[in-house]
Write a structure and sequence with these properties.
alpha+beta, 128 residues, Ribosomal Protein S5, domain 2
Length: 128
Amino acid sequence: MEVVNALGRRKAAVARVFVSEGSGQITINKRDLENYFPSPMLQYIVKQPLNKLGVAEKYDIKVNLDGGGFNGQAEALRLAIARALVKINPEDKSALKAEGFMTRDPREVERKKSGQPKARKKFQFSKR
C-alpha cells in the first residue's frame, strides 16, 4: 500500500496527514501523540475514527499540524484521519459519517469590528 494523504481543518488549525501501513504509530510534528497531546481526552478525539473502524494498530500516521489551539488541532486531525481512511476504503464512509467524523465544522471566529471592544460587544451608550 502506498502513502495516502488527506487534509483536515478546524478553526485556524490545519492538519496534513500521511497514512501508511504499519503498527499504529502516530507522529505529530516529529513528536509522539502522547507527547504532543498530553491530555487523554484529546488523544481520544484523535483516535476516534481509528477506533470506530477497529484499525488503530494497522496504520502508521505522520502529521503536519499548524495553527490554532490544541482543541482545534485535535479536531482538525480527527477530520484528516477520517478522510484518509475513506480514501483507503470507501465503504467505511457511511460508518464515519454517521458518527460525524466526515463533517468539517464551519464555525470560525468572528472578526472584531472597529469602534467597539469585541466582535459583538458594544461600548455603553451614554445619552448625555
